[in-house]
Design brief:
Number of helices: 25
Low-confidence stretches: 148-172, 679-698
Mean pLDDT: 84
Number of strands: 9
Distance between the termini: 24 Å
Structural class: alpha+beta
Radius of gyration: 43 Å
Largest sheet: 5 strands, antiparallel
Shape: flat
Length: 823
């Protein structure tokens, strides 16, 4: 239980195990997930490590697996989610998997290459088939046209874009160039033909219409068939060069109809053969990918495990005989028995005759910080770690943040209705967690990770909404109001009917008998305040003072938590006591004044201002005739200010002077040792860096210590003032949220509710939809995010700086479960 409130106690352990059992031992430790290996070669480059070749092989296998996964996804083949993998990764698995993956990759690449070649051939045959089918009509039309010697004009070409051109030489024997060009390139191709040959050609073209049985490609490209009739071989050569420039495909086409018919028959036969071969090739490819998809997750897990094992082995040392591996690990003290059992299990699996040895090392190095979490607490721990990983054995703020964070959020977001919607959203995320994780969306993953944070924020918002008596800007009258209007009328009160009709507003007088029952509303704010004109003034005063009280209590709780750190680091008298007394003397007393003023009965005309009382207290100004709350207020306030003033030099000078005294004493002891026992004995007192103790102590700079302590003192004293003022954001955001909710009610939904015409129901439906959208987007999303960020700031800056340093480094164990994202 202690590890929940403070980071785990860690230890540095040296491991000795045989080389043949190394894979099994590390595999067991990886499944255990409680061991962080220390790099014993910090200055060695990656390419100089022993198992770098094996790591490269694993990376190459990962590349092949990514290639296979891409092909499987492209072919719309389902990858099974469940898989079973071996717990033990042997060295020979690298060679077996590497050869299998290489063979599979080469086979798949060859299949893809053959399929692409067949598809290209099929596309060419398809284009030739369309070309032969359409050129029959072209030849008939051109032969009839050349007999009448049609001469087109340039204007007609560019205005009507006719699909045929003719030369002016009469009936001549023409050659032709036939081919296929992309549809979007044809207009430019046509225009350049005209400018080159000035109309001395005949051009025919038609768009290729795809057929379902012939569309073997994934994406159909629109193309046009064209035939250019010209005279002269030199001109045809120029046209061929132009076709090459436009990347047009040119195909041979016979002159007579019989040859074209025979060629078309041959093309159709070849297309049928290619269609059959393509079908068989695709079936074989799908079969190969389906077999690979069945083992894809298992292979991926196995390769990642082997890579992690070889990467871990690169961190270890191997003795000269190459038979013993030496490693150093960080692990929790409470899990040493589990680690030892895992090592023995791994050694037994290989039949090793030597049991692994664990040797605990005492070191001055700072261990990593390890805080155990579960599904519920991991979100709050992530919030703390985002500020900074705690120092070793430092108090962990996460357990307390689970209570204070959603509460401070709810103080700013207090509304029963909005809190209920947020709670329902969190419950929905919790119930459908697996479904949302499969969406692979960054925003959704963030919401799922913080689902329990959202749940607590919603529940606390419902609670504070009941305290504020606010639900979508409306209040509940569950217990009956403590105020009564009836007793203000004659004869018990001063009101009459004329008073009711002639007054713009009326004020209830609690001194009139029966107007105020004398018993406060049992839970929360009285619903009568919801219809009062001075509601905002009342809530302003109430929420502002409440924010100060919550802020001071929150900061005092942080100072009390620092006691655990100060006991651990032996700074109770030097830091904890002056910090606590300074905070209580000033801001604890401010909280007392607020609560005392609430508890005693004082007339509003003679009630003193808490702010002026506190300012006059700091300046010892008691000359004014301002009223006091109690009789001995003046001497008490003078005493508290003096005590707070004494705490400042105590906090500033006590620790540096004590350290200076210890430093002088250590120098004197070293001097006596050197005189009495000589320099040989001095060498026995070396520190971990191999330097003499005296030289190590002399490195302490007293000037740096005084400067650091001065900065800490100024930061703490001024921070108490600024941090208390910072908690007023609770008051500001709470009022802003309530006012926005009231504006949406009055200016949107209430307008539709007052309509009494026949279309009122339709208007109400539209208005309610608008109200719902604005409520979700503005009040839930925008206001919720704003309250979340402000609550985060209050914890990071105002609360945690009282006891939390956050300058450690996180415990990063070898864990296969985290690596493979398994649960």
């Amino acid at each position: 239980m202690d590890s929940f409130f403070r980071s785990e106690e860690m230890c540095l352990v040296q491991l000795f195990f045989q080389t043949e059992s190394a894979h099994n031992c590390i595999d067991e430790l990886g499944h255990l997930g409680l061991v962080q290996f220390k790099d014993l070669h910090p200055g060695t480059a990656d390419f100089q490590r022993r198992f770098v070749k094996e790591v490269k092989k694993c990376e190459e296998m990962e590349r092949i697996l990514r290639f296979l996964k891409k092909e499987v996804i492209t072919s719309n083949i389902l990858i099974p989610a469940d898989f079973t993998t071996e717990r033990i990764s042997l060295p020979r698995d690298v060679l077996d998997l590497e050869s299998s993956f290489d063979k599979l990759e080469q086979e798949l690449k060859e299949i893809n290459s053959n399929r692409d070649t067949l598809r290209q051939n099929f596309t060419q045959l398809t284009e030739i088939n369309h070309l032969l089918h359409m050129t029959d009509d072209f030849f008939v039309e051109v032969e009839s046209q050349m007999t009448i010697s049609e001469l087109p004009s340039e204007d007609s070409v560019y205005s009507s874009r006719r699909a045929s051109y003719a030369s002016t030489n009469g009936s001549l024997k023409l050659g032709f160039v036939a081919g296929v060009i992309k549809h979007e390139r044809f207009p430019a191709f046509e225009k350049i033909l005209w400018r080159l040959f000035h109309g001395n050609f005949v051009l025919r073209h038609a768009e290729i219409k795809p057929h379902q049985e012939e569309n073997m490609e994934e994406v159909f490209v629109k193309k046009d068939v064209f035939v250019v009739f010209v005279q002269g071989d030199q001109v045809r050569g120029k046209i061929r060069k132009l076709c090459d420039g436009f990347h047009a495909s040119m195909y041979p086409c016979p002159n007579n109809a019989a040859a074209r018919k025979e060629m078309r028959t041959n093309v159709n036969m070849r297309m049928e053969d290619l269609r059959l071969v393509l079908k068989r090739t695709e079936e074989f490819r799908v079969t190969t990918l389906t077999a690979a998809a069945a083992n894809l997750r298992e292979w991926t897990a196995k390769v990642k495990k082997m890579k992690a094992i070889y990467y871990t082995l690169n961190l270890c040392n191997i003795d000269i005989t190459q038979k013993l591996i030496i490693a150093e690990i960080w692990c929790p003290v409470s899990d040493l028995s589990s680690v030892h059992a895992a090592l023995i299990k791994g050694s037994e699996q290989t039949g090793s005759s030597v049991t692994p040895i664990m040797n605990r090392i005492h070191t001055q190095q700072t261990p990593p910080t390890f805080n155990r979490t579960n599904v519920f607490t991991s979100g709050f721990q992530n919030i703390i770690d985002a500020y900074g990983v705690g120092d070793y054995q430092e108090i962990n703020p996460a357990p307390y943040t689970m209570v204070t964070f959603p509460f401070l959020f709810a103080v700013m977001f207090g509304d029963c209705g909005h809190g209920l919607l947020m709670t329902l959203l969190a419950v929905w995320l919790i119930l459908h967690e697996e479904h949302f994780r499969k969406l692979k969306n960054e925003l959704v993953d963030m919401l799922v990770s913080g689902r329990y944070i959202i749940l607590l924020m919603g529940i606390y918002s419902i609670y504070t909404g009941l305290i504020y008596n606010d639900c979508f800007s409306k209040s509940f009258n569950l217990f009956g109001s403590s105020w009564s209007v009836r007793h203000m009328f004659h004869p018990q009160g001063p009101w009459t009917n004329e008073t009711l009709h002639n007054s713009d507003y009326l004020q209830l007088d609690p001194l009139v008998s029966g107007v105020y029952s004398g018993n406060p509303y049992p839970f929360g704010i009285d619903p009568m305040w919801n219809i009062a004109l001075n509601k905002l003034l009342f809530l302003n005063s109430y929420k502002m003072k409440m924010s100060v009280i919550i802020g001071v209590v929150h900061m005092l709780f942080g100072v009390m938590l620092s006691l655990g750190n100060y006991i651990n680091f032996k700074d109770v008298v030097l830091k904890f006591i002056p910090e606590l007394v300074f905070m209580l003397s000033l801001f604890g007393y401010l909280t007392f004044l607020i609560l005392y003023k609430w508890c005693v009965v004082i007339k509003s005309d003679s009630a003193p201002s808490i702010l002026l009382l506190f300012i006059n207290m700091m300046f010892f100004d008691y000359s004014s005739n301002g009223a006091m709350l109690y009789k001995t207020q003046k001497p008490v306030q003078i005493f508290l200010v003096v005590v707070a003033g004494v705490m400042v030099p105590w906090l500033l000078f006590a620790k540096p002077l004590l350290m200076y005294r210890e430093h002088k004493q250590s120098k004197l002891v070293n001097h006596l040792i050197r005189i009495i026992k000589g320099t040989l004995l001095q060498q026995k007192y070396q520190n971990d860096k191999g330097e003499p103790l005296e030289k190590s102590k002399e490195k302490i700079s007293m000037g740096d210590i005084f400067v650091y302590q001065g900065i800490h003192t100024i930061e703490y004293c001024l921070g108490c003032i600024s941090n208390t003022a910072s908690y007023l954001r609770l008051w500001a955001l709470s009022l802003a949220h309530a006012e926005l909710s009231e504006v949406l009610w009055k200016m949107v939904l209430q307008v539709a509710l007052r309509v009494t015409s026949g279309m009122g129901s339709v208007l109400l439906a539209v208005t309610f939809a608008t109200f719902a959208v604005l409520t979700v987007t503005i009040l839930l999303v925008m206001e919720g995010l704003s309250a979340f960020l402000h609550a985060l700031r209050l914890h990071w800056v105002e609360f945690q700086n009282k006891f939390y340093q956050g300058s450690g480094y996180k415990f990063s164990p070898l864990s296969f479960d985290k690596m493979l994202n398994m649960k």
